[in-house]
Amino acid sequence: MSRFLGTGVAMVTPFQANGSIDFDGLAATIEHLINGKVEYIVVLGTTAESATLSKDEKKQVFKFVTERVNGRIPLVAGIGGNNTTEVVAEVNQFEMVGYEAILSVVPYYNKPTQEGIYQHYKSIAQAAKLPIILYNVPGRTGVSMSAETTIRLAREFKNIIATKEASGSFDQFNAIMADKPEGFELISGDDPITLPMVALGAIGVISVVGNAFPVKFSEMVRLSLNGDFKAARPLHSSFLEFTRLCFVESNPCGVKAAMKELGIIEDYVRLPLTPIGDSTRAKVVAEVAKLK
């Protein structure tokens, strides 16, 4: 059974008012997620504002999370970018202790061809000592990895074990599920379509809203995985407006505002992101009250 069955959370990086990393807030977030019974944590994915962290800060976060978690829950490291040589170097230099896989996003901004995407991941797969989870999120990267490229990578590299799919395309999901090799898994990258993706055969989700509400959201996923969609649907529906609000002014600004309302962390973000506006904040606060 996959170690990544169920709910993973793409954990936020809390900051202080001066822009430095809030390690107390990071510790509080870790405990919130573990107590919330999520199955694993993704460290320094895109929700963590990893593009704004220096290499030294990333090392500090990876190390801090490893030590704080202390083996209580599986960890996945977010290591990706649009410079293949640099990503391969980061993978080679990564201190693997405490981590069970690497999540690596499709190269952004460059808009590579499918062959370029394939060669990018081939280079990472040949360098990596940990299993790799692909991450297709065309809304952020500007290009979508096709189902054909995903399957090609899955078949040719046994250490590529799953894909986090945030394309929103059920044609793509269907194609992956129809042709994937045994042992290669589909993971939802979009909170609001996790339930139907699980019905199709996905093994769970790497979630954003789980940062705020890990208990309820992971329970919805577990019910779905157990085939109890009748019980899962009301929970699924209860999150729809909250999820929409979390993304209306860029991720992770909305979910950080919710976490502030819940007393977990402050909602500081790093430029070019800014905190959500008053109107959106009022709506987030109202949804938090409903979900509590």
Automatic annotation (TrEMBL):
<dbReference type="GO" id="GO:0019877">
    <property type="term" value="P:diaminopimelate biosynthetic process"/>
</dbReference>
<comment type="pathway">
    <text>Amino-acid biosynthesis; L-lysine biosynthesis via DAP pathway; (S)-tetrahydrodipicolinate from L-aspartate: step 3/4.</text>
</comment>
<dbReference type="GO" id="GO:0005829">
    <property type="term" value="C:cytosol"/>
</dbReference>
<protein>
    <recommendedName>
        <fullName>4-hydroxy-tetrahydrodipicolinate synthase</fullName>
        <ecNumber>4.3.3.7</ecNumber>
    </recommendedName>
</protein>
<feature type="site" description="Part of a proton relay during catalysis">
    <location>
        <position position="46"/>
    </location>
</feature>
<feature type="binding site">
    <location>
        <position position="47"/>
    </location>
    <ligand>
        <name>pyruvate</name>
    </ligand>
</feature>
<comment type="similarity">
    <text>Belongs to the DapA family.</text>
</comment>
<feature type="site" description="Part of a proton relay during catalysis">
    <location>
        <position position="109"/>
    </location>
</feature>
<dbReference type="InterPro" id="IPR002220">
    <property type="entry name" value="DapA-like"/>
</dbReference>
<feature type="site" description="L-lysine inhibitor binding">
    <location>
        <position position="108"/>
    </location>
</feature>
<keyword id="KW-0028">Amino-acid biosynthesis</keyword>
<dbReference type="Pfam" id="PF00701">
    <property type="entry name" value="DHDPS"/>
</dbReference>
<feature type="active site" description="Proton donor/acceptor">
    <location>
        <position position="135"/>
    </location>
</feature>
<feature type="site" description="L-lysine inhibitor binding">
    <location>
        <position position="82"/>
    </location>
</feature>
<dbReference type="GO" id="GO:0008840">
    <property type="term" value="F:4-hydroxy-tetrahydrodipicolinate synthase activity"/>
</dbReference>
<keyword id="KW-0704">Schiff base</keyword>
<keyword id="KW-0457">Lysine biosynthesis</keyword>
<feature type="active site" description="Schiff-base intermediate with substrate">
    <location>
        <position position="164"/>
    </location>
</feature>
<feature type="binding site">
    <location>
        <position position="206"/>
    </location>
    <ligand>
        <name>pyruvate</name>
    </ligand>
</feature>
<dbReference type="InterPro" id="IPR013785">
    <property type="entry name" value="Aldolase_TIM"/>
</dbReference>
<keyword id="KW-0456">Lyase</keyword>
<dbReference type="GO" id="GO:0009089">
    <property type="term" value="P:lysine biosynthetic process via diaminopimelate"/>
</dbReference>
<comment type="function">
    <text>Catalyzes the condensation of (S)-aspartate-beta-semialdehyde [(S)-ASA] and pyruvate to 4-hydroxy-tetrahydrodipicolinate (HTPA).</text>
</comment>
<dbReference type="InterPro" id="IPR005263">
    <property type="entry name" value="DapA"/>
</dbReference>
<keyword id="KW-0220">Diaminopimelate biosynthesis</keyword>
<keyword id="KW-0963">Cytoplasm</keyword>
<comment type="subunit">
    <text>Homotetramer; dimer of dimers.</text>
</comment>
<feature type="site" description="L-lysine inhibitor binding; via carbonyl oxygen">
    <location>
        <position position="51"/>
    </location>
</feature>
<feature type="site" description="L-lysine inhibitor binding">
    <location>
        <position position="86"/>
    </location>
</feature>
